[in-house]
Amino acid sequence: MTKKKIFAISGGTRTNSSNLSLIKAIEKLTADQLTFHIFNDLAALPHFNPDLNSDEIDIVKNFRKQISESDGVLICTPEYAHGVPGSLKNAIDWTVGTAEFSQKPTVLITASTDGEFGHQALLETLRVIEAKNIDELNLLIQFIRSKVNISNEIIDEQLKTDLNKLMFNFIKIL
Ligand SMILES: Cc1cc2nc3c(=O)[nH]c(=O)nc-3n(C[C@H](O)[C@H](O)[C@H](O)COP(=O)(O)O)c2cc1C
């Protein structure tokens, strides 16, 4: 069976981001069914401005293309100051006019200390840009730093169960 292609975005841009570790842990969990491409250029995207001609900005074109060519998207992000990290919201804003997320199977995981506000805000954004099944394919993980380590291992049994269930439901619609 051909593996489905997942485009993964970490809203945490730190070198030792727990959200990046979580993506890598999920990649391992699903390695027999999915291949991952992890986006490395989140912080390098220019600030969104509708006046800019995005057809002339390679990094933006590549970002959109990678979403379009994937079978599904996985977003893992922390919450910053009760909101969505600016660099992640900026990236998503680049897709609003061109609708790459419309009907794209998408998983949203907010993995933070608390995360409730940022999770709801990003969930609403993904709803309005029509990410497929987003109301089923989302998970809020609190106290993330005690649940995944820097070796990309999930060290919380309940989280392993929750992730297996979430990814099973994701893979079903790919
Ligand atoms: C500027 C800043 C603001 C933060 N604000 C919040 C917040 O509002 N809610 C929360 O749950 N965690 C907050 N945190 C803590 C993050 O959840 C925590 O640092 C998390 O590990 C960041 O994700 P990362 O490991 O992927 O970088 C904040 C961290 C930073 C650096």
Task: Walk me through the structure.
This protein has 174 residues and is an alpha/beta fold. The protein has helices at 18-29, 58-69, 86-93, 116-128, 157-172, and strands spanning 4-10, 34-38, 72-77, 106-111, 138-141. Bound molecules: flavin mononucleotide (FMN). The site of flavin mononucleotide has 16 residues, from helix 1.
Q: What's a quick, concise take on this entry?
A:
This protein has 174 residues and is an alpha/beta fold. 35% of the residues lie in helices and 16% in strands.
**In which order are the strands of the major sheet placed?**
2-1-3-4-5
Number of strands: 5
CA distance, first residue to last residue? 13 Å
N to C succession of SSEs:
EHEHEHEHEH
Using only C-alpha atoms, the radius of gyration works out to 15 Å
Q: What is the percentage of strand-forming residues?
A: 15-25%
Instruction: Enumerate the spans where pLDDT stays under 50 for 5 or more consecutive residues.
Output: none
Largest pleated sheet: 5 strands, parallel
Helix-residue proportion: 25-40%
Ligands bound here?
A: flavin mononucleotide
Shape: globular
Number of helices, counting only DSSP H or I runs of 4 residues or more: 5
